[in-house]
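Bug #77: duplicate submission created two jobs. Keeping one. Sequence:
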Amino acid sequence: MTSREGNLEAPTRHPLDWNNPDFYDEDKLNHEMERVFDICHGCRRCVSLCGSFPTLFDLVDESKTGEVDGVDKKDYAKVVDQCYLCDICYVTKCPYVPPHPWNLDFPHLMLRAKAVKFKQGEVKLRDKVLASTDAMGKLAAIPVVAQVVNAVNAMPVTRALTQSALGVDKDAWLPSYASHKFRSSAADSQPHAVRDGERTPGKVAIYATCYVNYNEPGIGHDLIALLEHNEIPYVLAEKEACCGMPKLELGDLEGVAKLKEINIPALAKLARQGYAILTPIPSCTLMYKQELPLMFPGDADVEAVRKAMFDPFEYLVQRNKDGLLKTDFKQPLGNVSYHVPCHSRVQKIGIKTREALELVPGTKVNTVERCSGHSGTWGVKEEFHDMAMKIGRPVFRAMGENTPDYISSDCQLAGHHIEQGMQQAATASSDAPVAKQPEMAHPITLMRRAYGL
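Kept job's structure:
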């Protein structure tokens, strides 16, 4: 039997068999990792994507046999630790994904390894704390606590102590906490008439996300302003917890399931009432579009939410195609360097944010499609921050081309990471004086400015 290279069929993805006891069998996991690593070592297409693949190839090349069988299985963890589940290798590079008979799903194999590690209790306290976004956000939402946390995060001395105690890199950008949550400060919608389009429901339910709710509520208020200006009635999801992506990245699949039980019933009710569900953070959108459906195949509520879930710019562009989006823009945006986050790319919806920004007269968009390196909580960890900055350097350079007025990313964490990298590069350069740095703003904020709202 011969195996062809590549697929003629569209790639598909198998459900995650996480309830099967074999999923957590370490010997069976190592056997599958050896099989996949052997194929990856012979292919090497993904060497430029992240640290997992160079780490793997070095382990194999430097082993006694020069093959995968010469690698100590304990060292497999070094490959797993470098994977932050961006999914780009699966979507853009690997020629052996299903339905190819070799059936490679590298990110979900790494997820399985993380789940085994979590099950065995080998996860650091720091990692559990960073993945508990709701608990941290609710505590920091107390105004006095928010002020203290923000002050501590801004002081080099306390950041050094935090690095020593928790392993959060002292130089990594950390988000500040807002003293007022988005969900408690969001205005009610005006009583606009519901105008359904061919491609879009005429009413919206906002799933705020932990980041918008606790860290930058202004993004949520900007989204509301866009909906109000376009006369689209909206509601907030009645009940909302973390989408589960941070716990997924940690391998805490039971934790993901618990959050699903909080979120899905309320969101499914909205989906069946005909709402488009908008999430302002790509990782959260992807969680409901891809990861939960793969974890809970056949769950009718999960499927209903998947079908109703939109990236905000996916919704706005489709709204425009329906002839229902206002284009009465008042303010040109000039040169915008726009970064496409990995979790936007793997949604396979095209570059809808760029399409929307290019509707604004007097706006030129420089698009950068490459991983920024931040990758959720991964890039702030002491042992990975330098690698995160290294991965991001080509992005930092590309985002600075054409003297942008703004830099922007749908993933606000990536946006701040890029801003930090560009500022460091400008400061380190001795060839020219430091130029004025472009402003970093979320694309939703840019659209609000373009409308003159």
